[in-house]
From TrEMBL:
Protein name (Swiss-Prot/TrEMBL): Transporter family-2 protein
Residue ranges crossing the lipid bilayer per the database entry: 35-54, 66-87, 93-115, 127-143
Species this protein is from: Neobacillus ginsengisoli
Lineage top rank: taxon: Bacteria
Phylogenetic classification of the source organism: Bacteria, Bacillati, Bacillota, Bacilli, Bacillales
Keywords annotated in UniProt: Membrane, Transmembrane, Transmembrane helix
Length: 144
């Protein structure tokens, strides 16, 4: 676990930043509409990415035609729209608990079948952990 501390901290930080970004997106969506929010936020992302590409060279840009990149970009837009639309009706905590539970479900399948890397077995400890988390998700969403 100590060897993975940086990755653990980065993933945890991404969760923190994601909750703040989604809440900000929801507020922007209230003023600009959801489509205006997606276009505006995505435009800023493109500008930031362009600056990074210019600093690191345009060689990374050659993979833009990858179908995976197109799919990932489309999924990002769908996620941004779904999360920011849901926050105003069920709240940030419920949305992110549901997002995380969806991620647990899909990542379990991805790991088990080895869709993007080596397959990882589904152990009894993992199954019990997922069940406990899902009980917590159900309880929290029901309480909201």
């Amino acid at each position: 676990m100590n060897g993975n501390l940086t990755s653990i901290l980065l993933a945890f930080s991404a969760g923190i930043l994601g909750a703040f970004q989604a809440s900000m997106n929801a507020q922007i969506g209230k003023v600009s509409g959801q489509y205006g929010m997606i276009i505006g936020v995505s435009l800023v992302q493109v500008i930031v990415a362009a600056v990074i590409l210019m600093r690191g060279g345009l060689s990374a840009f050659s993979s833009i035609s990858s179908p995976w990149m197109i799919a990932a970009g489309a999924l990002g837009v769908i996620m941004m729209f779904s999360v920011s639309s849901s926050i105003s009706s069920i709240g940030t905590l419920s949305v992110f608990v549901l997002v995380i539970s969806g991620q647990i479900f899909s990542s379990t399948l991805i790991d088990y079948f080895g869709l993007f890397s080596a397959a990882r077995p589904l152990t009894l400890q993992k199954i019990i952990s997922i069940v406990v988390i899902m009980i917590g998700v159900f309880s929290l969403v029901k309480a909201s």
